[in-house]
Design goal:
The chain contains 14 helices and 6 strands. It is of the alpha+beta class. The radius of gyration is 32 Å and the shape is elongated. The protein starts with a helix and ends in a 9-residue tail after the last strand.
Length: 394
């Protein structure tokens, strides 16, 4: 076979393998970062391991097929690019999976292939095999360093894959062919860098997507979920209420005299107050049993959504506990005398089953009653609770 035919075979295989590598990377990213399927999320780690092993086995079978066409591995170029793909895939999975058991499996497969199919025995091949295994284990245990920047990542890949190629190259007697090594290392760098940069691009895109998604569903100032997210959660809970009878409770919180804070201390101080209140609500929701979410609904209006239906007395205790936490907030950077109070309206889903946003409407009515009664109060089921005796949340 002429050198031109070998080069053509090699270049075609190179392009094909880059495309295959991009496809495999996309599949792994889909499983790891982009899926919303409960089944895939629950079994993500196992699926990544199985997919990685299946991918390497596919490459190995392709390599073996081309090896059978040319047992001396001197003619066709395709099997050598497939070897590059196998080595790069093993390297990448060693870094990203960090699994010593999987690394042991790759070492055993390499031992089976080298010692079972070699035509001649060479000290270079044996030494290369043990270097290959040692590097593989080293990459698994020091994966954070090699993933920290491009330079260690690509230098590690070049060293690991070159040793792997040397091991396979030594399996059959052949004269030194500098053109082969130029071609092989060039293809290795091309596939490795193309795959690595495509993976980096996918990572950047995922970060931008996550940031855009977070920005669309969360308030920029406070970090709480925004009204759009509250609406989506309200719809989801309303559907669950009618499908499975799952009840829920909603508290609407409105800061008292917030305009006065802005007028007295300025709007930047008002933003600081909103952030302080958001932290109180976030911690309050986090420490509640079950699923609880905190929202900034707009301006100085906030909301808390709980996945249990509460009686008016329970809602009262919950609201009063929240008012106590707001009472304890101090912001010396604004004024040591500043005290925060709020009015809270409560509603339970069981009372308004026929209306999608009925819980919000009832809570809003109760909030209005709390403000009418003098603010800094909790209102549930149309009853405003005075704060003469403040109950604690049990």
């Amino acid at each position: 076979m002429s050198n031109l035919m070998i080069l053509q075979s090699f270049l075609l295989a190179l392009v094909m393998n880059i495309i295959i590598s991009f496809g495999a990377t996309s599949v792994l990213y889909q499983i790891n970062d982009r899926t919303s399927s409960p089944f895939l999320v629950r079994h993500k780690e196992l699926l990544i391991q199985v997919t990685g092993v299946a991918y390497v086995l596919f490459l190995f079978l392709a390599f073996r097929f081309h090896f059978q066409l040319d047992p001396q591995m001197t003619g066709y170029g395709a099997h050598w690019t497939f070897l590059n793909m196998i080595l790069i895939a093993v390297y990448v999975m060693a870094l990203y999976a960090g699994n010593l058991i999987q690394a042991g499996v790759w070492a055993l497969i390499m031992a089976y292939y080298y010692f079972g199919y070699r035509i001649t025995s060479s000290p270079i091949g044996v030494i290369g095999y043990f270097l290959f295994v040692g590097l593989l284990l080293y990459f698994v245990t020091h994966r954070r360093y090699f993933l920290s920047a491009r330079a260690p990542y690509y230098l590690g890949m070049l060293l690991f894959c070159t040793i792997g190629i040397v091991v396979v190259y030594s399996m059959a007697p052949r004269q030194l062919d500098l053109w082969f090594w130029v071609r092989q290392i060039g293809a290795l760098l091309t596939i490795g860098v193309a795959t690595g940069e495509y993976s980096n691009l996918m990572t950047v895109m995922d970060r931008h997507y996550a940031a855009a998604k977070h920005g669309a569903t969360h308030d920029e100032l406070t970090g709480l979920a925004n009204y759009a997210e509250f609406s989506a959660d309200a719809v989801r809970r309303y559907e669950q209420l009618h499908q499975s009878g799952a009840r829920y409770t909603f508290l609407e919180i409105d800061l008292d005299h917030f305009k006065q804070i802005n007028d007295t201390y300025g709007h930047p101080a008002g933003n600081t107050v909103l952030q302080a209140v958001a932290r109180v609500l976030q911690n309050f929701a986090h420490n509640m049993p079950g699923v609880s979410n905190a929202y900034r609904l707009g301006g100085e209006e906030f909301g808390l959504l709980f996945d249990d239906e509460m009686t008016p007395e329970e809602m009262h205790r919950l609201g009063e506990a929240l008012l106590q936490r707001l009472d304890a907030v101090r912001i010396p950077s604004i004024s040591p005398d500043l005290r925060l109070t709020a009015s809270i309206g409560c509603a339970a889903a069981g009372d308004v089953r026929k209306k999608l946003f009925g819980v919000y409407a009832v809570a809003d009515q109760n909030l209005y009653l709390a403000k009418q009664a003098g603010r800094n109060r909790v209102c549930a089921a149309g009853r405003v609770y005075e704060r003469d005796v403040v109950p604690t949340l049990s």
